[in-house]
């Protein structure tokens, strides 16, 4: 996993707030404080900087270790090492049993992961508080005592995992090489941003044990790290525990600070690339800008939003509205530790010549120069207070913010100062940075076009060169395994580094739920929670895609989109402005079985936000031009989805499950033929027939009480009519595909996407939860056998999982992974073996692990307001008891081995499953035919039987 280190920080920009810190308590008064991020910081003798934050709202703790080393510390020929080392660090260490780092944390009810950016690497976990000291044990061992455990076998296996990650996220997807091409041309070869974070495959393949050891010794000392602990902790006890577990780690080499390295371009470069996967042409322009914390960064951030961030923005109006060249346009600034980039991106409609896109961008920029929208500048600042609270609602996000601030600004709460800097940005500042960094300046321009459509690229563009891996069937040096454990002399420590015991088990208690009823009969469900001054809400309207006529699938989706494009009283842009001025978000989406109006706002703006929701739901605008734009945009998106093998696999799997005659056999967003059938009158009729109070429920979670909520919803209760809605019933097709294997050709694919499954249970079925529990050992996250075998043992994939989809209709049980192309057949055999032997291998030990894993994760799973909304939705949809979570936990506790075995024998029998593979036919079909499921049945990319 790779996240930009300021992803969370950027959420907090543009709103003036002050903060309270134990070190500065006397400088902050209660009246000044509109946002509090309290912390205590200390430094161990070995240089490790530690930041603690108390949050007793939930019995969970987040631990984040941020190493100040990213790909910017690498050298040409050794690229990708920071990210590769992140993977290696999750393997073994001297005092933690082999494989525990990835396996036991989920079994303790926690989550864990890591990410690497250009400038840093972060490791993090969120666990129930009883496992807190166990995490300190694991994290400290990883930081100080892992390098001796690295073996050649582990090194080679992890190379394959990282290579699979690169294939999955870069090489096997459309536009995957864009970032690599831009960086190689924007930055000089000696600049540490010249290469992508994940590095090059030849460099990864050439990595040696000596390289790994050198990297660790150079950069992984505690004096180059920040440890943040946030959550339900006692400060004094935590300090003692940190000193015990981390205090003996040897201080590392001193790591010199890097100075900013901004770049200038002597000329504009225009490059094109024929993309094997892309179906739509894409244009990007990238200008060099400034490093983080530069005084111009904040104006550049706002400039990006002003140019394309709303329907009234100049680029949107020119590219999308006037010229109708693309569904959307984006512009944004990215400032990293050493340098920055300002990007324009347009993924155009199919067949669009990118020269016309470039001309439209230029016209939009001229309009910006001539007509600066000062009101938009105000709205940009106004809407950020909500994002500030959203960005620090969870303890792990607080940990990210504190760690980033400490490492890059030597101030854990630096986000607050950044907010103040940004709030001071003026019109003159925005115009100044536009003239300084964009207008008339040189840039890198890339034209990514579908294969065989080079005529769509920018005129006079030069072909970009990119290394592309060739995967050879049966390549011997890619058959890897875990190998034997390393032989070494264990490091002597003063403190016993044996695994600590669990602390006191935190007991999960269902939140208090209230229920009210509006005048028209709509039920309202609420949870009052005052941890942050926010409110999240949703209105569920039964039906959604299930109400689509078969030949007009996607109708509900289009209706939801159009309802957000203005009301009877407001144009599309006026509605957008009204929402932004409240700092709120409102959205409508359609799913398989319902439409969902959802939103988020400050508690003080809840009433005004709900008044806008009422206007949106009850008074659609029916703007014909907006309808035509949305329809065109959807057709473009559908074309783009044809370029993604994982999307193709998912949609085709669903079609194999539900067939041609069931509405769920067609995607909820429709297909090209069905979207072309839809008219504006169809949307009006669907609205009249189906958007009724009789099938609606409302859910509210946050810092508002029942009385306030019901008062604000009074208008919806009085004005929304309750009419009968007829939800159709469908007959499930005969399930006759067991034991078969289907194949879809995706020429040149570096990976094969594998799906296996069968129709299982409705979410309303009493056995649904039991099947979900029973699956945990097989495919429930990184501790599941699928993940542990296909990734950890074999290195065939980046991830492998199984799960039960949640539908009121009977839903499928699914096994899903993407594997290296030449490992397709062995991966299929492993999946088959794991399912075939699941009953035999499921013992009392697995019963205990399952119960611990699920019971202890409850507090973490319902921490945020969105999680609480899901509780309310389950109550309203399935008429569950208010404390149903506690009831379900009791159900789990009471399950015996026999109960688990019965579920396996009924729902997870390999003989009942069918398989689907999306991959390169030229190299894989003959292999798949050896699997033992007969000859592969070929389908087209839409899941239809392929015609000869």
Automatic annotation (TrEMBL):
Residues 50-172, 529-648 form the Peptidase M16 N-terminal domain. Keywords: Coiled coil. The keyword Coiled coil applies. Residues 358-385 form a coiled coil. It comes from the Bacteria. The keyword Coiled coil applies. It holds the Pfam family Peptidase_M16. Transmembrane segments: none annotated. Residues 207-382, 677-853 form the Peptidase M16 C-terminal domain. InterPro entries: Metalloenz_LuxS/M16, MPP/UQCRC_Complex, Pept_M16_N, Peptidase_M16_C. Belongs to the peptidase M16 family. This is Insulinase family protein. It comes from Kordia aestuariivivens. The lineage of its organism: Bacteria, Pseudomonadati, Bacteroidota, Flavobacteriia, Flavobacteriales.
């Amino acid at each position: 996993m790779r996240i930009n280190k300021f992803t969370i920080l950027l959420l907090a920009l543009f709103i003036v707030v002050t903060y309270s810190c134990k070190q500065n308590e006397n400088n902050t008064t209660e009246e000044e404080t509109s946002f509090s991020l309290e912390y205590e910081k200390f430094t161990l003798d070995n240089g490790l900087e530690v930041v603690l934050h108390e949050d007793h709202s939930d019995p969970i703790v987040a631990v984040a270790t941020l190493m100040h080393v990213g790909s910017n510390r690498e050298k040409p020929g050794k690229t990708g090492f920071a990210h590769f080392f992140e993977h290696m660090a999750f393997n073994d260490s001297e005092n933690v049993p082999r494989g525990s780092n990835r396996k036991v944390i989920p079994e303790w009810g926690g989550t864990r992961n890591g990410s690497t950016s250009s400038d840093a690497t972060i490791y993090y976990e969120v666990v129930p508080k009883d496992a807190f000291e166990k995490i300190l044990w694991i994290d400290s061992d990883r930081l100080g005592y892992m390098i001796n455990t690295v073996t050649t076998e582990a090194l080679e296996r992890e190379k394959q995992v990282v290579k699979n990650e690169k294939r999955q996220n870069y090489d096997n997807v459309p536009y995957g090489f864009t970032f690599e091409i831009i960086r190689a041309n924007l930055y000089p070869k000696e600049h540490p941003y010249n290469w992508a974070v994940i590095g090059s495959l030849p460099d990864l393949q050439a990595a040696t044990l000596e390289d790994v050891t050198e990297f660790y010794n150079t950069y992984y000392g505690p004096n180059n790290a920040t440890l943040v602990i946030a959550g339900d902790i006692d400060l004094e006890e935590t300090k003692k525990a940190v000193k015990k577990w981390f205090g003996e780690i040897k201080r590392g080499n001193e790591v010199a600070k890097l100075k900013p390295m901004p770049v200038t371009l002597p000329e504009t470069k225009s490059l094109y690339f024929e993309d094997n996967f892309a179906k739509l042409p894409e244009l990007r322009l990238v200008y060099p800008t400034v490093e983080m914390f530069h005084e111009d960064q904040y104006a550049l951030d706002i400039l990006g939003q002003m140019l394309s961030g709303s329907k009234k923005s100049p680029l949107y109006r020119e590219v999308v509205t006037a010229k109708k060249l693309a569904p959307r346009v984006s512009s944004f600034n990215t400032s990293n530790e050493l340098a920055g980039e300002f990007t324009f991106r347009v993924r155009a409609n199919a067949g669009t010549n990118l020269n016309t896109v470039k001309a439209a961008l230029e016209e939009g920029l001229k309009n910006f120069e001539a007509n600066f929208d000062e009101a938009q500048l105000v709205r940009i600042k106004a809407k950020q207070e909500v994002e500030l609270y959203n960005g620090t609602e969870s303890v792990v996000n607080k940990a990210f913010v504190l760690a980033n601030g400490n490492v890059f600004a030597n101030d854990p709460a630096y986000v607050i100062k950044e907010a103040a800097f940004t709030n001071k940005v003026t019109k003159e500042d925005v115009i100044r940075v536009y003239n300084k960094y964009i207008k008339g300046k040189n840039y890198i321009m890339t034209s990514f076009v579908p294969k065989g459509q080079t005529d769509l690229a920018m005129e006079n563009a030069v072909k970009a060169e990119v290394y592309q891996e060739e995967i050879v069937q049966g390549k011997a040096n890619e058959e890897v395994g875990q190998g034997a454990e390393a032989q070494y002399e264990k490091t002597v420590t003063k403190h016993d580094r044996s695994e600590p015991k669990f602390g006191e088990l935190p007991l999960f208690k269902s939140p208090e739920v209230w229920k009210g009823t509006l005048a028209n009969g709509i039920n309202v469900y609420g949870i009052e929670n005052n941890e942050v001054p926010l409110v999240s809400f949703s209105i569920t309207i039964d039906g959604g895609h299930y109400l689509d006529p078969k030949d007009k699938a996607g109708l509900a989706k289009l209706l939801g989109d159009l309802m957000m494009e203005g009301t009877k009283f407001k144009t599309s842009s006026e509605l957008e402005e009204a929402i932004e001025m409240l700092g709120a978000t409102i959205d409508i989406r359609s799913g398989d079985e319902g439409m969902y109006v959802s939103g988020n706002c400050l508690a003080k703006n809840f009433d005004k936000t709900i008044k806008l929701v009422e206007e949106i739901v009850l008074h659609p605008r029916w703007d014909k031009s907006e309808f035509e734009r949305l329809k065109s945009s959807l057709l473009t998106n559908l074309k783009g989805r044809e370029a993604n093998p994982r999307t193709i696999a998912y949609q085709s799997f669903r079609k194999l499950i539900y067939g041609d005659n069931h509405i769920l056999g067609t995607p909820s967003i429709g297909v090209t033929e069905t979207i072309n059938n839809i008219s504006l009158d169809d949307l009006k009729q669907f609205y009249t027939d189906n958007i009724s109070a009789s099938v609606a429920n409302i859910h509210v979670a946050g810092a508002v009480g029942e009385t306030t909520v019901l008062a604000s919803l009074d208008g919806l209760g009085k004005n929304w009519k309750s009419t009968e809605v007829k939800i159709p019933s469908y007959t499930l097709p005969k399930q006759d595909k067991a034991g078969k294997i289907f194949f879809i050709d995706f020429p040149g694919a570096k990976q094969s996407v594998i799906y296996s499954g069968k129709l299982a249970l409705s979410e309303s079925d009493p056995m649904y939860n039991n099947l979900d529990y029973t699956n945990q050992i097989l495919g429930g996250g990184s501790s599941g056998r699928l993940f542990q075998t296909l990734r950890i043992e074999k290195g065939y994939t980046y991830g492998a999982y199984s799960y039960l989809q949640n539908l009121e209709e009977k839903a499928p049980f699914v096994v899903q992974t993407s594997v290296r192309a030449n490992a397709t057949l062995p991966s299929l055999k492993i999946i088959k073996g794991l399912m075939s032997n699941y009953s035999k291998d499921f013992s009392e030990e697995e019963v205990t692990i399952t119960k611990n894993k699920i019971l202890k994760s409850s507090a973490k799973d319902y921490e945020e307001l969105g999680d609480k909304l899901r509780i309310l939705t389950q109550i309203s949809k399935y008429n569950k008891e208010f404390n149903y979570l506690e009831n379900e936990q009791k159900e789990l506790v009471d399950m015996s081995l026999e109960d688990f075995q019965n579920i396996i024998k009924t729902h997870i029998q390999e003989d009942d499953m069918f398989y689907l593979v999306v991959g390169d036919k030229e190299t894989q079909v003959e292999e798949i035919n050896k699997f033992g499921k007969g000859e592969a049945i070929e389908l087209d990319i839409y899941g239809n039987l392929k015609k000869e």
